[in-house]
Every structure is written in structure tokens, then in C-alpha cells.
Design goal:
Length: 359
């Protein structure tokens, strides 16, 4: 057996390919060849190319029309009326206009690249990138070739319609900015003054604290330790939407909490702003106006879920974490003869974001 294995090993060592034959070893790094180029219908039929071009610029001009319609819908269905039908129509038609405008740009751009732009296959060999003159000239040639392949400089109708669609697409956004700063009027002389608007709410001396949204009055005895109540002025519950219910609620909303009186750290001029450990603070975050509604009864911290600002209710709702710039405004409270919680006055400072402090 050992003799046979030695013979086989000797035969393997002495083996050579026959004369005239070669052993072919495939190149492991050679890439596959490109498949044969398939011509599109638009490459072979000039009429099809013209149809594709018309389709592209028609989509872009439809985008222009949709953007203009979104702006027109903003004026046709004014949300300032307070009517729910106008608010629904405003959201619906503005959304449809903006959505269709962007959709038409997207479909037009895709159809342009698929049917009109050059689709020839190219192989780009890899090479070292150097900041030489030849490299810079090559970069310029890339833009020149891209312009030639896409037809951007040649096909003026498509190019101009795309520019028009892109410019028109921002018109609805610019139009909507108008609603952020309503103009003053004889009926509402402070409409365009955010400082004045945020300096006064519906709270006044004697206003009963009421549950949101039922408007039911709150007794001090019903506020237990560790509890948190969402509160509005009692008068607000009777206000209609067409009378500014949402606008007034956005400013007057309050969070009511109770802790042990000895746990409160109060400034000397605010010691009578609470009642038997019950405190009331604005629910509007002083960062960008999000609702501060997450209360942790063990730490007495309030958390704004939008940007994680935290306020210490036991210490004047001062900021202990996050981007908020100042404490939550406190609503001075007391009780009436029947034990119901009432406001001593309105807030003594503007509620909401701190932009009003900047001149």
C-alpha cells in the first residue's frame, strides 16, 4: 500500500499539460461587460420624444397651478371666521394644492430622467483624485456633459417650466405666514401686537378655576396631594368657537397641583399666591409654547414633551433642565366663601414663549 501511494505522488509531481495546450486562469478582478444597450421608444421615434417633452412641462405647469390654487384656497376659506366648515375646507384644499404641486414636480422630474434625458451606459474608471488643473477641468467637463445629456440647456420649455414650478411651490408657504400676524383693526386694536396679546388672558379677580373642558368649578378640598388638574377660567367654557374660544384657551390654560405647604419655596411677594399647598401655573411652555402637561408627583417636576424642558413646581416653577429661558408664570389663587378656588388676578407677566422679551 505504501508503495502504491509513493507511485501516485510521483505521478502527480511529474504531470505536465500536453504539448499545444494551455491552462487558463480567469481574471478574478475583471468586471462583466455591459449588456447591449436597449433603445427607448423616445430615442427611436421623434413624435414620442415630443410627447414626452410635452408631458414633462405640462406636469411642471400643473404644479404652478396647484401652488396658486393653495394660495387662493387660503383666501376663499379663511380660518379667521371660526366656522368649522371653513377650517376643514381650509386644511383640505390648501393641503391638496400643496401636495399636488410637489407630486407634479416629482413625477415630472422622474419622467424627464426616464424618457427625455440621455440613458447611455458609461464606464467610469477609478483613478486617484488630485487637485491639479486637469482635475478641475475634468470637473467642469462633468457639468458640461451632464447639461448635454439632460438637455437642461437645450430644452428651454422644460427648464423654464421647472423654474416656474419651483418658484410657485413656495407661494403657499409665504401666503400662510400672513395668518401668523393678523393686522390691527378697530374691533381688535392689538391683533398685530404679540406682546399685548400674551400680556392679558381671560383670568381676572374672582374667576373660578374650572375643569377643562367641562367648566365645572373646583373645590380646594377636591385637590388631593400629588394630583394635577387641567384648568380653565369658568367663563371660557361658555365661549363659542366663533367668539375666540381656541385663542383664549391657548393663553389661559393652567395646570393645578397640590403638595405639602412646607415643600413649597416661595418668594416673599408671592407667599399668598398659593392656597394650602395648591399652586397654579401656566401650562404654556416658555420655550416655544408647547403644552407642559407631564407632572411627576415625587420630584414635583413638570416636563414639556416637545423639547424636554423641566420646571420645579416646588420652587416657583423655575427651569431646571432644557431650553426654556424662564419659569412658568404663576396664577395667584385663593378660595371663595364656599371653598371654591378662584383667581386673585390675571397673570402678572406675559405667558408663553419668551420672544416678547426681545426688542
Amino acid at each position: 500500500m505504501a508503495h502504491e501511494e509513493d507511485a501516485l505522488e510521483h505521478e502527480r509531481a511529474s504531470w505536465k499539460p500536453a504539448s499545444g495546450l494551455a491552462v487558463v486562469v480567469p481574471d478574478p478582478v475583471q468586471g462583466p461587460e455591459l449588456p447591449p444597450h436597449r433603445h427607448r421608444v423616445t430615442d427611436q421615434d421623434p413624435k414620442a420624444m415630443r410627447r414626452a417633452v410635452r408631458t414633462v412641462y405640462t406636469l411642471f405647469y400643473l404644479s404652478v397651478a396647484a401652488s396658486l390654487w393653495a394660495s387662493i384656497a387660503y383666501m376663499i376659506f379663511p380660518i379667521e371666521s371660526g366656522e368649522m366648515i371653513d377650517i376643514r375646507n381650509n386644511n383640505l384644499f390648501i393641503g391638496l394644492g400643496i401636495g399636488f404641486a410637489l407630486l407634479a414636480i416629482g413625477i415630472g422630474a422622474i419622467h424627464w430622467s426616464k424618457a427625455v434625458m440621455s440613458d447611455k451606459e458609461y464606464i467610469e474608471p477609478r483613478h486617484a483624485t488630485r487637485g491639479r488643473d486637469a482635475t478641475r477641468e475634468g470637473a467642469i467637463n462633468v457639468f458640461v456633459d451632464a447639461n448635454e445629456e439632460s438637455g437642461f440647456g437645450r430644452r428651454e420649455v422644460i427648464r423654464n417650466s421647472l423654474f416656474a414650478a419651483l418658484v410657485a411651490s413656495v407661494i403657499p408657504g409665504i401666503t400662510l405666514f400672513r395668518g401668523l400676524a393678523p393686522e390691527n383693526s378697530p374691533e381688535n386694536p392689538i391683533a398685530g401686537n404679540p406682546v399685548a396679546l400674551l400680556s392679558h388672558t381671560m383670568w381676572k379677580e374672582g374667576s373660578h378655576l374650572a375643569h377643562d373642558p367641562s367648566g365645572r368649578r373646583i373645590r380646594a378640598a377636591d385637590v388631593t396631594l400629588g394630583s394635577a388638574f387641567h384648568v380653565i377660567p369658568e367663563e371660557l367654557a361658555d365661549l363659542g368657537h366663533d367668539e375666540g374660544y381656541l385663542e383664549e384657551k391657548a393663553k389661559a390654560i393652567v395646570l393645578l397641583m397640590r403638595m405639602l405647604p412646607e415643600q413649597l419655596t416661595e418668594a416673599d411677594d408671592k407667599k399668598d399666591w398659593s392656597y394650602d399647598g395648591i399652586v397654579a401655573y401656566s401650562k404654556v411652555c416658555t420655550h416655544v409654547g408647547c403644552p407642559v402637561a407631564l407632572y411627576e408627583q415625587q420630584t414635583h417636576h413638570l416636563l414639556c414633551p416637545c423639547h424636554q424642558s423641566q420646571f420645579d413646581v416646588a420652587d416657583g416653577a423655575k427651569v431646571i433642565f432644557g431650553p426654556a429661558a424662564r419659569p412658568l408664570p404663576q396664577l395667584p389663587i385663593t378660595v371663595d366663601d364656599e371653598g371654591y378656588l378662584v383667581a386673585r388676578s390675571d397673570f402678572t407677566e406675559p405667558v408663553g414663549p419668551s420672544f416678547w422679551e426681545r426688542h
